[in-house]
Design goal:
The protein has about 375 residues and is of the alpha/beta class. The chain folds into two domains: about 240 residues, Type I PLP-dependent aspartate aminotransferase-like (Major domain) (Aspartate Aminotransferase, domain 2), CATH 3.40.640.10; about 120 residues, Aspartate Aminotransferase, domain 1, CATH 3.90.1150. Helix content is about 40%, strand content about 10%. The structure holds pyridoxal-5'-phosphate (PLP). The site of pyridoxal-5'-phosphate has 14 residues, from α3 and α4. Pyridoxal-5'-phosphate (PLP) binds next to α3 and α4.
């Protein structure tokens, strides 16, 4: 029996990374600073530097809070509409409901990104914002979207939970919109050891407002100028992210190399549709999502071989109880029925990926 290959096992960090994280933990334990402080400030500066942006980076509690705070900063609420993709992680639509606005769902193209050709049909006088999602790590065409939104006076909140490190025309994912929102959830390409996120904006006034919303409406301690909340990033997570940022480029290289192996060897196999743009710079190779009419059978087959896979996502948002819509989103629904994420992470070896490839090919050999 072959050794199992999990979809993702975060206990597999290299020993030198584990040691660096343990060292950071001890260091922070002796300093006794667990909220705010130098690690959070340093992380904001280092992310800005890494993204090569003049935007203000505001670390926060997680990606969902980042999105909700972005909507609140833009004063989007009851009576407003926000365009969101039908296929995404639930947070993108959830936050719109949380602030009392209406999510207006848009179908996707075959790669899972919002279909920009449908925008004109969906925009109304009530449309205040749009939330493009760089799904699976592949960027939405931000040049096209920003020019459309600017013409209509519609704000862009970029959901960059999955796209850290990708860039388009030399400009990083997450700094194209009026506000950008990041998740550093542990399974992301740049992940903390717990919950964490960030909000970005180039607008200094918005940045101030976001800082206040994240910290009980205070510009300084004990002066509460607006109703905010506690959505601050834990210092310890900022500390861990400061360590992990040093590993990011190397991990990205590994992801891309493994993705290239999959592409080389799986091309032309069965009815597989491969993520053929995954090696481009506007894709950060977060997920390797294939599409096949035999998705459930292939998933089962790989599971029996000890290979973990995942589905991103099994249900479109407008088919979920809190968001039900009668409208059809035919492409997004096709993806929910055919998409399968194969393991792609920096802890995999080439040998393991070659075994996954072998098993996928074996599956199609058997069934054709
Ligand atoms: C597209 C998308 N949006 C938002 C989020 C929310 O981020 P978090 O889990 O940090 O709240 C995620 C994270 O899974 C995501 O993938």
């Amino acid at each position: 029996m072959n050794v199992p290959i999990p979809f993702l096992d975060l206990s597999l960090f290299d020993q030198d990374l584990k040691t660096a994280l343990e060292r950071k933990f001890s260091e922070m334990l002796s300093k006794g600073i667990f909220s705010g402080g130098e690690e959070v400030e340093l992380l904001a500066l280092r992310i800005a530097d890494f993204l090569d942006t003049k935007c203000t980076i505001i670390p926060c509690s997680n990606g969902t809070d980042a999105l909700e705070i972005a909507l609140r900063a833009l004063e989007i609420s009851i009576g407003d509409e926000v365009i969101v993709p039908a296929l995404t992680w639930v947070s993108t639509a959830e936050v719109v409901k949380l602030v009392g606005a209406k999510p207006v769902f848009i179908d996707t193209d075959r790669s899972g990104l919002m279909d920009l050709d449908l925008l004109d049909q969906l925009a109304t006088q009530k449309t205040k914002a749009i939330i493009p999602v760089h799904l699976y790590g592949k960027m939405v065409d931000m040049k096209k979207l920003t020019s459309w939104a600017k013409n209509k006076g519609i704000k862009i909140i970029e959901d960059n939970a999955q796209g850290f490190g990708a860039h388009q025309n030399g400009k990083s994912a997450g700094v194209w919109g009026d506000i950008g929102c990041f998740s550093f959830y542990p399974s992301k390409n740049f992940g903390a050891l717990g919950e964490a996120g960030a909000v970005t904006t180039s607008d200094k006034n918005l940045a101030k407002k976001i800082q206040m919303l994240i910290n009980h409406g205070q510009p300084i301690r004990d002066r509460h100028e607006m109703v905010g909340r506690n959505a601050r990033m834990d210092s310890i997570q900022a500390g861990f992210l400061n360590v992990k940022l040093d590993y990011f480029k190397n991990w990205q290289e590994k992801r891309k190399n493994l993705a290239a192996l999959y592409l080389d060897h799986l091309s032309g196999t069965g009815d597989l549709i491969l993520p053929d743009t995954i090696l481009n710079s506007d894709h950060n190779a977060h997920l390797f999502v294939i599409q096949t009419t035999l998705r459930n059978e292939l998933k089962q087959f790989l599971q029996e071989k000890g290979i973990g896979t995942s589905i991103h996502y099994p249900t479109i948002i407008p088919k979920m109880i809190p968001y039900l819509e009668e409208v059809e989103f035919s492409i997004a629904e096709k993806i929910t029925a055919s998409a399968l994420s194969l393991p792609l992470n920096p802890f995999l070896t080439e040998k393991e990926v070659m075994r996954i490839i072998f098993e996928v090919k074996l599956f199609y050999g058997k069934t054709s």
